[in-house]
């Protein structure tokens, strides 16, 4: 699913904005995040040089995180007061509850691994949501999320530029 979303966004935005802007936008989107940005930047799609793509994807992925950490609980509380949006808020809380065990058990390092290992349903957005709903302090959660993003960057760079680069380069 991620691959098809990345390909669709790349095609939809291609010719309208630069490749760098495309990977920046993709890196800010939940579910896709840095992983999708690096896939889009790879030789298989946009062929953005890796040393240019990495900082763009990291910044794009990091940009929403402080807002999530600071505001998501208030936003969800507000959404729960509005018909129809209440279901979305409950779904978001259930998603966070499903993933909070690892973070709750292992704290800082659990959050690092949760964000860093590129599996479906993990990443900076969900990690921030879980950290916020567990009331982790920002001075503890933000560095953990940043470290997780760096780990994800290494893994996804090797996959996107190593494997895909060998296939399409």
Quick rundown:
The protein has 169 residues and is mainly α. It has 8 helices and no strands. It has 2 domains: 76 residues, no CATH class; 88 residues, no CATH class.
Mean pLDDT: 91
Strand content: under 5%
Overall domain count: 2
Q: What's the helix-strand series? A: HHHHHHHH
Count of runs of 4 or more consecutive helical residues:
8
Structural class: mainly alpha
Can you tell me the residue ranges where pLDDT is under 50 for at least 5 consecutive residues?
A: none
Percent helix, as a range, is: over 70%
Radius of gyration: 16 Å
- For the report, how would you describe the main beta sheet? none
**Termini gap:** 24 Å
Total number of beta strands: 0
Give the CA-based shape. Answer: globular
What does this structure look like?
- By secondary structure, the chain is mainly α.
- It has two domains: 2-62 and 154-168, no CATH class; 65-152, no CATH class.
- It contains eight helices and no strands.
- The longest helix is centred in the middle third of the chain and has 32 residues, at 85-116.
- The protein is globular and about 45 Å long.
């Amino acid at each position: 699913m991620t691959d098809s979303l990345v390909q669709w966004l790349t095609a939809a935005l291609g010719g309208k904005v630069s490749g760098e802007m495309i990977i920046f936008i993709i890196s800010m989107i939940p579910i896709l995040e840095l992983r999708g940005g690096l896939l889009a930047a790879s030789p298989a799609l946009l062929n953005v040089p890796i040393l240019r793509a990495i900082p763009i994807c990291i910044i794009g992925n990091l940009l929403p995180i402080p807002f999530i950490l600071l505001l998501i609980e208030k936003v969800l509380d507000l959404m729960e007061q509005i018909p129809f949006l209440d279901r979305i808020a409950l779904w978001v809380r259930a998603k966070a509850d499903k993933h909070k065990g690892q973070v709750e058990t292992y704290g800082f390092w659990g959050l690092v691994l949760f964000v860093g290992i590129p599996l479906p349903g993990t990443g900076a957005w969900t990690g921030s949501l879980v950290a916020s709903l567990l009331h982790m302090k920002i001075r503890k959660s933000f560095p953990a999320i940043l470290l997780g993003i760096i780990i994800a960057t290494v893994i996804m760079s090797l996959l996107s530029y190593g494997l895909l680069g060998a296939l399409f380069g």
